[in-house]
Design a protein that fits this description.
Blueprint: H1 4-19, H2 24-40, H3 42-58, H4 63-69, H5 73-87, E1 96-101, E2 107-114, E3 117-122, H6 126-138, E4 142-146, H7 152-168, E5 176-178, H8 184-190, E6 199-203, H9 206-215, E7 228-232, H10 238-250, E8 259-265, H11 269-282, E9 286-289, H12 291-300, E10 305-306, H13 309-312, E11 320-326, H14 329-339, E12 344-348, H15 352-361, E13 366-369, E14 389-390, E15 398-399, E16 406-413
Parallel strand pairs: 3-4, 3-6, 4-5, 7-8, 7-12, 8-11, 9-10, 9-11, 12-13
Antiparallel strand pairs: 1-2, 2-16, 14-15
């Protein structure tokens, strides 16, 4: 092995010992310095991003992924502003979670503390570099960041800028370490460093997440993959349903909370589908549909591809969607629990009994009633910045914000007590 990952993790581990006990004031000053540095080095960052964009275009990368990769003045400013917003949030560390006196007069206090060193492996999203760095610094954790090859120039440039700001703020620059190698063996080496890294967070497609889960010795928190459904129940207000589906699919196609599949009650298919198909086609969405969808589309002269079993489980991350007719609530729930990724699912229904049965029985981190799936986000939930959306059940579920990057310790104060 090259040793690149170990050297990065060792540097982060040393830095974590300083950052983990730094005051809230020092950590917030570092966040403001990081924000100022992003603004000051905007041209340097955008030049690096343009190199990534050019390479991605030449490789034929999908439009949705190009959107994720692209940085411009507004997005750099948004990243800087997000760091300043983080500084305004309450300190997640040092909070007294529990305090009591035991039978033997020992005083027991449970206090929130940083996890230590957080490793992130992610794909073509430069903003994740800044989001992860900011959230980790705020929560007192050092981080080792491994970007996908498509965004490597952007990630390395951002890492350099952030490290300079950390040093300026009086913290070790290695509180944030960006691995500059695109060699996959470096990632596999990182997976073995349980002695240095406390948690691994993959953020990307199903293949990346599966690889991390199957090969990492470090505890993994899964995030990201979003095969999100909207189920249009027979009681739905269709005038409300169409804009919800369009928003969930097209507002930003390359994100994990975008809708990838629509289920329609067969009893309203002939009423619902014509306008739904027209609006999706007008938005230039490629449609994969079952037999009923195909029949309705043919009558309207709207192109629809015959959906396959694979389509029901596909996260397109593009202007593409699958549509299936179901016999009712039971089939819709069964379909979602089979093909969903436990991310965000929605029902559009005026029937409250059906809506709440759906909410209880669908296995997902976020379940919506009469709203777009696009709201699954730390900021939208009032949690502040997030490091991802957890689709698992242990440690954290849903938007993965500051508190989820802490654990706790017990502090026990005595006056000479010994156990009998």
């Amino acid at each position: 092995m090259s040793g690149i990952a170990r050297r990065a993790a060792e540097a982060a581990k040393r830095a974590s010992e300083v950052l983990g006990v730094a005051s809230e004031e020092v950590r917030n000053e570092a966040l403001f310095a990081m924000a100022a540095a992003l603004r000051a080095e905007r041209a340097f960052i955008l030049e690096a991003n343009e190199r990534d964009m050019n390479a991605a275009r030449e490789a034929g990368t999908k439009e949705g992924l190009l959107d994720r990769l692209m940085l411009d003045d507004a997005r750099v400013e948004a990243m800087a502003a997000s760091l300043e917003s983080l500084a305004a949030l309450p300190d997640p560390t040092g909070a007294v979670l529990e305090e009591r006196t035991l039978y033997n007069d020992l005083k027991l206090t449970r206090v929130s503390v940083p996890l230590g060193v957080v490793a992130m492996v992610y794909e073509a999203r430069p903003n994740v570099t800044v989001d992860a760095a900011g959230i980790c610094v705020k929560s007192g954790n050092a981080c080792v960041l491994r970007s996908g090859s498509l965004a490597i120039h952007s990630a390395v440039a951002l890492g350099e800028v952030l490290q300079g700001a950390l040093a300026q703020a009086g913290l070790p620059k290695d509180c944030v370490v960006v691995i500059d190698s695109t060699d996959r063996s470096v990632t596999d080496e990182l997976f073995l460093l349980r002695d240095l890294v406390d948690v691994l967070i993959p953020r990307g497609g199903a293949g990346l997440i599966r690889h991390c889960v199957e090969h990492s010795l470090i505890p993994v928190i899964e995030t990201g993959t979003g095969n999100c459904h909207i189920y249009i129940h027979e009681s739905a207000d269709l005038a409300e349903a169409y804009p919800i589906v369009l928003n969930a699919k097209t507002q930003r196609v390359g994100v994990c909370n975008a809708c990838e599949s629509v289920l329609v009650d067969r009893s309203i298919a002939r009423t619902c589908l014509p306008e739904l198909l027209r609006q999706l086609a007008a938005a230039k969405v490629r449609i994969h549909g079952d037999e009923v969808v195909g029949e309705v589309a043919a009558e309207l002269d709207i192109p629809v591809e015959a959906a396959t079993e694979e389509d029901w489980g596909t996260e397109y991350l593009d202007y593409e969607i699958s549509i299936k007719c179901v016999e009712g609530l039971e089939e819709a729930i069964a379909h979602i629990n089979r093909f969903g990724t436990k991310h965000s699912e929605a029902i559009l229904a005026e029937d409250e009994t059906a809506a709440h049965a759906f909410a209880r029985r669908v296995d997902a981190a976020a379940v919506y009633i009469n709203a777009s799936t696009r709201f699954t986000d730390g900021g939208e939930f009032g949690l502040g910045a997030e490091i991802g959306i957890s689709t698992q059940k242990l440690h954290v579920r849903g938007p993965f914000a500051l508190e989820a990057l802490t654990t706790y310790k017990y502090i026990i104060e005595g006056e000479g007590q010994v156990r009998a």
